Amino acid sequence: MDKQLEKYKSKIFINNMLESAIRIGLLIILIGWTLGIIKPFIIPVLWGAIIAVALMPLTLKLEGVMKGRRGLSATVLALIGIAILVVPLVIVMGSIFDGIVSLTEFLQNESVKLPGPSARVAEIPLIGGKLHSTWSLFATNMEQALVRYGEEIKAGVSAFAGALGSGLATVVMFIISLLIAAGFMAHSEAMAKAVKQVSVRVVGKHGEEWAGLIAATIRSVLLGVVGVAFIQSILIGAAMFVFQIPAAGLITFAVFILAIAQLPALLIVLPVIVYVFSYMDTTPATIFTVWVLLAGLSDNLLKPMLMGRGVEIPMPVILIGAIGGMISAGIIGLFIGAVILAIWYELFMTWMKMPQQSDEPSSDPSQEKSLKD
């Protein structure tokens, strides 16, 4: 009898295990399919939510001006954001196109010859000899140089075209994210309520507090990091275009990337200053130098003004988030990576400061008496 009961229980156990395995397998398949379907939309929706949180205070102020029309206020902000994004892109693309056209005309013009390298070029450590011979070849026999280094030139052009295409795709992603952000801001009450409910459900009683902390961190990083980087790159880029520096658009974009990664813009500005002094007169070169140096150091003044009070994110956290985000998700990952890692840092620090629940028995006599009873 006992053997039959044990055999029956074993059979039930095996059936339950098989049924559970099938259910778990089907659930994993369903989750995999779902992730495959929504994967293209994760980054734009996430970035749209981040933008919406950052711009929500401005939307509320604009709503008061527009007599309570929140949808119109959110749409206006999204259109302004798209204009701010597209106009510099057109300028940068125009600069790149002009540079490519000038280079093409230069290479096609047989009467144009490159000046030969000076003897000092060969004295440069490590690369001097190779650079001198290559430069001499291009200066004396352009056709032979193009044939000899044709593969390297094609690889460079392909890499540049790929980077350009990736940049255009990122801009389109930004535009889509801004439109998504407008939808989030137009229905902010419902979205905020849902986020708080999920936060309380996941975290517990501190969920609503943590949701507020996440919003404050997003605003702090976007204004104190991305906002400062944008202003700084505009100031430096204006000097580049006013003084007609070659590849001004690319230099401006490089400054923007460095500023987001929390690296000093002077890394790019100082070589440009040296180049300007090599061919400009002293007065305009000095004006340019003062302009770009003040713009390069402007982040020391802008960050305390724009960075949210009480939210201090260490530079290594932003740097790792920006670089890691760019490696994993392209240019847009610069922004999302910095924000996401800053959020985790703030949540971790808040969790560390929370008082721990005591596991020791209570010393209240009434409670001890009740336990004894």
Automatic annotation (TrEMBL):
Q: What membrane topology is annotated for this entry?
A: Multi-pass membrane protein
Query: Which InterPro entries has this protein been placed in?
Result: AI-2E-like
Does the UniProt entry include the keyword Membrane?
yes
Q: Which GO terms describe its cellular component?
A: membrane
Q: Which residues form a coiled coil?
A: none
Q: Where are the transmembrane segments?
A: 12-35, 41-60, 72-97, 159-186, 221-243, 249-270, 277-297, 317-345
Compartments, record wording: Membrane
Which Pfam families does this one have?
AI-2E_transport
Superkingdom to which the source organism belongs: Bacteria
- Which UniProt keyword terms apply here? Membrane, Transmembrane, Transmembrane helix
Q: Which family does it belong to?
A: Belongs to the autoinducer-2 exporter (AI-2E) (TC 2.A.86) family.
For this entry, the protein name equals Permease
